[in-house]
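User: Run a structure prediction on this.
Assistant: Running it now.
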Amino acid sequence: MNPFVNLWQRLPSLLGVRFAQRMNTNFGWRFVVILFSTYFGIKGIVYFISRSAFLPFLRIKLGVDDAPRFQALFTVSLLPWSLKPLIGMVSDVLPIGGYYKRWYIVGSAVIGTAACAVLASAPIVTVGEGALAAVLFFFIHVESSACTCPEKVKEVALGRDSGRHLR
């Protein structure tokens, strides 16, 4: 038998099409969308692009050329990552409007969007003019979304979904 024919027959399995169909059958399309957007969107694309763009942003737009200063700023930008347990505990203990995750996700999205708008459009030329604060707010958005969204995915997967979307 031709090895290319065998590969062609196995292609849907290799691409994950059958896996996605089984996930849709077992959990529903909403779960698949939340799962895909959380792990591939937030934790994958957004996190990778934001970390990859940090050095060129500091170097080209803000004029940071020395390595010790860049490392110090990069370390400060990792602060939201270390706050993930705190963000998770607060969102688990303090519901906003009866929802434990929904408004934390919405709030972090608003903060992250505002931070991106400031970074993209404001005439910031030095680190001291709010650029570091905007970067921190953007990374708080990324980390809090990466912290709160998987809780909803786990809740749906375990069958404890309350029926209220993003409770």
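Residues 28-157 form one domain.
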